[in-house]
Amino acid sequence: MLDVSDEVRAEIGDEEADRLLDGGDAPGSYDCTSCRTPGDSEQERTSTVLFVGEETAVLAFAHATCIPSQVVPVSEEQLKGAVRSITGKDDDTAHTPVQEPGPVAPPPAGEHQATLGITCGLVLIEGELRPALVVEPNGPIARPGSMSQQDEFLPLLREQGFGNVTDMNQLPAPNPGWSALLAMGKLHAVLQPGSAGNQSAWWQAHQPLAVSEGWRAAANKAQAVLMYAAPAGTIGHQPREDLMRQALEQAAAQGVLVAAAMPLAGTAA
Questions:
Q1: 155 is a domain residue
Q2: What are phi and psi of 151, to 5 degrees?
Q3: pLDDT, position 195
Q4: What ranges does the record list as Basic and acidic residues composition bias (predicted)?
Q5: What stretches in the chain show pLDDT beneath 50?
Q6: Largest CA distance in the chain
Q7: Which of 61, 86, 111 is the last residue of a domain?
Q8: Structural domain total, the chain
Q9: C-alpha–C-alpha distance, residues 19 and 16, integer Å
């Protein structure tokens, strides 16, 4: 009951793909690379997920209900982390909320490269805990070529489809083309629309970011995450989710919070 997509087949070759489909190299029991719970390729539909680095590649398996068979480009450093995770030799521990700085690639509107802090936490909306990413740069972001010191972070995100948040009890609207790459139970990147219908990394973790089991379960249940963004110094590094929620509500009341809902990468229709 193994699924091998055309793009995975193109990477591993017809011989290996056919061997997998014939059961020769089928994994049998495995830990899903997305939700990290047990799976059985003989009992349920299973996706082959190929992580490709600069020099090496790792084949992993996932519940077909979590993510489809696909090729996931990652850095060589991330791939080493993937191997540790697959072999069970990854000692990372997850805490909620989880915070991680990482580089952000310039969006199409021309945002300068900057360092962003990303916090993974759960927010209660409409009586349900929702997985959220809270993004805050480490300083003002100006447009390329501008001599102004004015922070253009929020205007640039608004231009790309992120909406103003006025009420934290309302779900943000979807932002087509954006997605969050959650693979092997960790957050790898936030992807933005690219050229020719492809996606590029808007933010990418230096190392895959461990998330809590509750956050991962909520993300897999909804097959989507909420991304909130605020200017530098607005939210801060909050050690608890109730404090994070309070900071978000204050930012919304001040009119300096934008947000959008986005699917998990590879699961959008």
A1: yes
A2: -80, 120
A3: 66
A4: 13-22
A5: 86-96, 98-113, 266-269
A6: 62
A7: 86
A8: 2
A9: 5
Residues 72 and 30 in one domain: yes
Helix boundaries (H) for the chain: 6-12, 14-21, 76-86, 153-159, 213-222, 241-253
CA 229, chain centre distance (Å) = 15
Question: Are residues 228 and 107 part of one domain?
Answer: yes
Q: If DSSP codes are grouped into helix, strand and coil, which group holds residue 52? A: strand
Q: Which of 86, 114, 148 is the last residue of a domain?
A: 86
* Full domain range(s) for residue 66: 2-86
Residues 58 and 110 in one domain: no
Task: With respect to residue 241, please indicate whether it lies within any of the assigned structural domains.
Answer: yes
Backbone angles phi, psi at 7, to 5 degrees: -70, -35
The amino acid sitting at 111 is E
What's the burial of 83, exposed, middle or buried (CB within 10 Å: 0-12/13-18/19+)? middle
**What is the Cα–Cα distance from 238 to 252, expressed in whole angstroms?**
16
Sign for the CA dihedral angle at 216, 217, 223, 228 comes to negative
> Which residues, in sequence order, are bridge partners of residue 210?
186
Q: What is the pLDDT of residue 197?
A: 63
pLDDT at residue number 63? 84
Residue 98: name the closest of 245, 215, 180 by CA.
215
Interval 87-110: pLDDT, tens: 444 333 233 354 444 444 444 444
For residues 174 and 235, give the distance between their C-alpha atoms in angstroms, rounded to a whole number.
Answer: 22
Rg (CA), the chain: 19
Q: Which pLDDT score is estimated for 89?
A: 43
Tell me, yes or no, whether 41 and 63 share the same domain. Answer: yes
Planar angle of CA 191, 89, 86, nearest 5 degrees = 50
CA distance 246 to 168: 10
pTM score > 0.70 for this model?
no
